[in-house]
Amino acid sequence: GESVGLHLPTLSVQEGDNSIINCAYSNSASDYFIWYKQESGKGPQFIIDIRSNMDKRQGQRVTVLLNKTVKHLSLQIAATQPGDSAVYFCAEIGAGGTSYGKLTFGQGTILTVHP
Amino acid sequence: KAGVTQTPRYLIKTRGQQVTLSCSPISGHRSVSWYQQTPGQGLQFLFEYFSETQRNKGNFPGRFSGRQFSNSRSEMNVSTLELGDSALYLCASSVGLAGGLTEQFFGPGTRLTVL
Questions:
Q1: 3-state secondary structure string, A19-64?
Q2: What residues in A contact B101, CB-CB < 8 Å?
């Protein structure tokens, strides 16, 4: 079946460092990938997305890289700030079959930024 | 523009009872999806409604059901509650264009505790 998983459940960095959060997915037919940030007591918040026809997409301080060959997704956060501390989830939207239009989430990575 | 709202925010029930949760999507959004979030299972897709019709469904028992009204507001119901139903229930809305490959905006969730 389809699944999306993360390599590292926790990540601790110093303020100002760059952070990289990784994600592996198994459904090669997935067409759309999203990174979400979830702070304590809140719902997931959209960070950045990427479609399968792209390798890289940049936002404000964030970059998502997609390697379809090895089915790997990463989120890079530049100059990490204490406010970036949260749980980060990757998610995929299926492009066909029973996964069509359905978000499948990875298990999440806890990012802790130390001042 | 107001975000996704969910009511109630917190709920305590006992085993065997039933519960109804409500979600109001962002104005203009026609798709509403429901997710269950637990520490053990992470974020899992329950179902998605679009224009009052269930368009997609996850792998949950029939005790979990939902509906959507003509104004796109949605409710989900869980009957015969079990201890394992304790979770954060998240609602997400999206424009819901064909293919479902659009950004989903999440509400703050309803924290359900089953005693």
A1: EEEEEEECCCCCCEEEEEEECCCCCCEEEEEEECCCCEEECCCEEE
A2: 31-32, 51, 93, 95, 101
